[in-house]
């Protein structure tokens, strides 16, 4: 009964918040999350600051964080250039983002899915030589804001490509949060025919309130790695005002209630959530945090 | 073949059911789920703002139009205790009753029951608790005393040909007692069922439950009450409601209580949410291929209406995701 939580708040979360926070705040957040016992904390992104200004302080953040032994701090790398900059800045693990939808790939990174995978193969090749682990992400696994329905077989193909090129783990992202447990079960059946289930993770968005139910069914199907974001940081770029990432506090609450271990200290996690919400001047999106806030 | 083998995997204090042999988890779920809409009573009763009778009536009418088959309309608890429901008679007389739709009302005792029937109620609800302390604090008597009081109601209801729905509060935890024993819940549910309630709604009153606890509780209760006479009433205070509902469906439950727009905060945690939003439940059920009879756009119209009247934001994520920008 163990689930690994991949905390994406400092990167996926902060990248999708309206307010920009200073470097010191990012560093302190990551340090607090390390203290809370999270084993994997997505630290920053080496996408060009031209595209993602929120992550312009990528090198500073990597150098500034207090790395806790046994904790991994992966960073996003869209291409070989980003990879090299990441390694130079001290990254020991990187992440690459593919999509299960052609339109989404075109709109997001201006190339087809196949072209993006070719680009990523350069990264995984270099990463292998450098002894750096690579995590693969697939977006739009349960629906696309442009294409609508997405075929589970397409997702399986993309996941298989990422796994074959050397990714140790594939995170399946319900990017717009439209998925429901039946769709999740169907998806996981298709993907687990191509990639071993213990190399799969789910990255559920809570835009339609379905995240915990989707995570539960994923657990029932053998998934044991779950992505989430402290305080539910990171709204949905496709539905203004709507929520995005599922809140780590709420995931941990469910897992602990199920008797599943995570290594996470929930009160310390909630402290980290309270800190970043103060810094962003926003209310938490975590229900657990809302329920236990001081009156 | 449609056959699905189910393993119970024990994990610590709770357990999950893992579906094997590659079958879709969807095959273990009911084809149809009845939604019991509690927004106009449970929801509005627990909102800070009090709305005029016309608004309540219009809300109920919109919910009827949205295809809900059970809509909890009001409460015949004394207005002394629940002033928000003081217009109980007006509401009962004012709503447009859609054929095939039931409009149950709360009745704490015989007096309330008689007033309810007098006002046209054709179904009533009684509320027990699985926690002694909660019973004492809420209705100033022990669980046993409350059940005796209810027996007077169910007897009269039987004579009058009025169905009675029983509720059990605090089934997964109590704000005063903390942990609640599944066997205690089962005993109370059994008493309510034996005295004539056609259905027992099991309420996670403070929303602390998680799927393992839900499973454990339902196993205990379904040993005493047939599963098709059981319903779940999950609160989303800790964000666990849909996961708890999903596991309840997997265990054969096919009746789910919810509240339009997630009306009704938690009286025990200021600022926290309470009832799960009907829109979010319907979204999940329809996504699972389960029929509910509910027209989601019309339901969302009802939610938007009541939120405007209450001057508050919806607690439904589906409504937030699809709101006009």
UniProtKB/TrEMBL annotation, chain A:
Q: Which SUPFAM superfamilies match?
A: Aldolase
**In terms of domain of life, where is this protein from?**
Eukaryota
Q: Identify the EC number(s).
A: 4.1.3.4
Limits of the Pyruvate carboxyltransferase domain:
3-270
Pathway listed for it is: Metabolic intermediate metabolism; (S)-3-hydroxy-3-methylglutaryl-CoA degradation; acetoacetate from (S)-3-hydroxy-3-methylglutaryl-CoA: step 1/1
Q: Mind listing the UniProt keywords for this protein, alphabetically?
A: Lyase, Metal-binding
Q: What class of enzyme is it?
A: lyase
- Gene Ontology biological process terms, A to Z: ketone body biosynthetic process; L-leucine catabolic process
Give GO MF terms, alphabetically. Answer: hydroxymethylglutaryl-CoA lyase activity; metal ion binding
Reaction(s) catalysed by this chain, per the record, are: (3S)-3-hydroxy-3-methylglutaryl-CoA = acetoacetate + acetyl-CoA
Q: Name one Pfam family in it.
A: HMGL-like
PANTHER family registered for this protein in UniProt: HYDROXYMETHYLGLUTARYL-COA LYASE, HYDROXYMETHYLGLUTARYL-COA LYASE, MITOCHONDRIAL
Family of the protein in this entry: Belongs to the HMG-CoA lyase family.
Q: What name has this protein been given in UniProt? A: hydroxymethylglutaryl-CoA lyase
Organism name: Oncorhynchus tshawytscha (Chinook salmon)
Q: Name the gene behind this protein.
A: HMGCL
Automatic annotation (TrEMBL), chain B:
Please give a single GO biological process term from the UniProt record: L-leucine catabolic process
Instruction: Please give the superkingdom of this protein's source.
Output: Eukaryota
Q: Which reaction is this enzyme known to catalyze?
A: (3S)-3-hydroxy-3-methylglutaryl-CoA = acetoacetate + acetyl-CoA
* Enzyme Commission number, as recorded: 4.1.3.4
Q: Where is the Pyruvate carboxyltransferase domain?
A: 33-300
What Pfam families does the record point to? Answer: HMGL-like
Q: Which Gene Ontology molecular function entries are recorded, alphabetically?
A: hydroxymethylglutaryl-CoA lyase activity; metal ion binding
Is Magnesium given among the entry's keywords? no
> InterPro entries of this UniProt entry?
Aldolase_TIM, HMG_CoA_lyase_AS, HMGL, PYR_CT
Q: In which pathway does it act?
A: Metabolic intermediate metabolism; (S)-3-hydroxy-3-methylglutaryl-CoA degradation; acetoacetate from (S)-3-hydroxy-3-methylglutaryl-CoA: step 1/1
Ordered alphabetically, the record's keywords are: Lyase, Metal-binding
Q: What class of enzyme is it?
A: lyase
Protein family per UniProt: Belongs to the HMG-CoA lyase family.
PANTHER family per UniProt: HYDROXYMETHYLGLUTARYL-COA LYASE (PTHR42738), HYDROXYMETHYLGLUTARYL-COA LYASE, MITOCHONDRIAL (PTHR42738:SF18)
Which protein, by its recorded name, is this? Answer: hydroxymethylglutaryl-CoA lyase
Recorded source organism is Oncorhynchus tshawytscha (Chinook salmon)
């Amino acid at each position: 009964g163990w689930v690994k939580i991949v905390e994406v708040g400092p990167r996926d979360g902060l990248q999708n918040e309206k307010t920009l926070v200073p470097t010191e705040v990012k560093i302190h957040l990551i340090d607090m999350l390390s203290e809370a016992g999270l084993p994997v904390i997505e630290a920053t992104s080496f996408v060009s600051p031209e595209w993602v200004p929120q992550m312009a302080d990528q090198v500073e953040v990597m150098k500034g964080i207090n790395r806790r032994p046994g904790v991994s701090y992966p960073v996003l790398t869209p291409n070989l250039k980003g990879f090299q900059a990441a390694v130079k800045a001290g990254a020991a693990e990187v992440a690459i983002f593919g999509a299960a939808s052609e339109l989404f790939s075109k709109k997001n990174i201006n190339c087809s899915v196949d072209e993006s995978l070719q680009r990523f193969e350069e990264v995984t090749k270099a990463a292998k030589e450098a002894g750096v682990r690579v995590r693969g992400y697939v977006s739009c696994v349960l629906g696309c804001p442009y294409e609508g329905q997405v075929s589970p077989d397409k997702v399986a193909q993309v996941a298989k490509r990422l796994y074959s090129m050397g990714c140790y783990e594939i995170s399946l992202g319900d990017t717009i949060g439209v998925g429901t447990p039946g769709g999740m079960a169907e998806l996981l059946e298709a993907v687990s025919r191509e990639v071993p289930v213990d190399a799969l993770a789910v990255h559920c968005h809570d835009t339609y309130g379905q995240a915990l139910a989707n995570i539960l069914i994923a657990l029932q199907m053998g998934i044991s790695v779950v992505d989430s974001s402290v305080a539910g940081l990171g709204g949905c770029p496709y539905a203004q005002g709507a929520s995005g990432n599922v809140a780590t506090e709420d995931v941990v609450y469910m897992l602990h209630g199920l008797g599943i271990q995570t290594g996470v200290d929930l009160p310390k996690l909630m402290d980290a959530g309270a800190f970043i919400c103060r810094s962003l001047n926003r209310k938490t999106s975590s229900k657990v945090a809302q329920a236990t806030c001081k009156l």
